Amino acid sequence: DIQMTQSPSSLSASVGDRVTITCRASQGIRNDLGWYQQKPEKAPKLLIYAASSLQSGVPSRFSGSGSGTEFTLTISSLLPEDFATYYCLQYNSYPWTFGQGTTVEIK
Amino acid sequence: QVQLVQSGSEVKEPGASVKVSCKASGYTFTNYGISWVRQAPGQGLEWMGWVSTYSGNTYYAQNLQGRVTMTTDTSTSTAYMELRSLRSDDTAVYYCARRVPSDYWGQGTLVTVSS
Fold this sequence. Notes:
Mean pLDDT of chain A: 97
Oligomer: heterodimer
Shape of chain B: globular
Distance between the termini of chain A: 36 Å
Distance between the termini of chain B: 40 Å
Mean pLDDT of chain B: 97
Number of helices of chain B: 0
C-alpha cells in the first residue's frame, strides 16, 4: 500500500498568512493526488485534483504543486473561513490512501 | 444539481450488519464510480472502497475484505455499502462520494456500534 505522510499535523496561523502543507508518498504516484478541506460535522470538499488543478468554484488563493512523491498545498493568504482540516488523497493505485490530516487553527 | 443523499443514522449491536444507501441525482449515475469513506469520531478519513456503477466491479480496503460489500442499483441510481460483523471500532460517519477524486459527497451516515 502507498503511505501518505502529511505534515505538519497542525499549525497555528493568522488571517493573511501564507500557509503550506506537504504530503509525501511512499512511492511515486505521478500527479494522482487530491487535496480536501473539511470543516467540523461536514463532508470533505475537493480543492485540488491532479496535484495542481483547481476544482471549479474553489478560490484562487488555494494552489497545489508537486509530482511523483512530494506535493504541497498552499493557501496564499488565509481567510477566516479557511480554518479547517486539510487532507491529501492519492488515487494512483488501490487502496487509495489519505494523509493523516493537517488542522489549521487560528493563532 | 448533483446530489448524493444517504440513509439515516443507525445504532447496531456488535456482530450485527448495517447497510447504508446513497441515492444519486442530477447526473447520469453510470458515468462515475462511487467511493465509500469513513471517519471515526475525532479521527481522519479512511478510504473503504470503490464500486463501478457501470460494471459493478469493486475494490476494497484490505482491512475490510470479507466484511464489506459495495453494490449499486442502476434502476434507482442508488449505491449501497453493507458492513457485517460490526465491532465497536466500526463506529464512524460513513460517506459516499462520486468520481475520482471525489467531487460530490453525501451528507454522511452515523453508524454507532454499541451493546
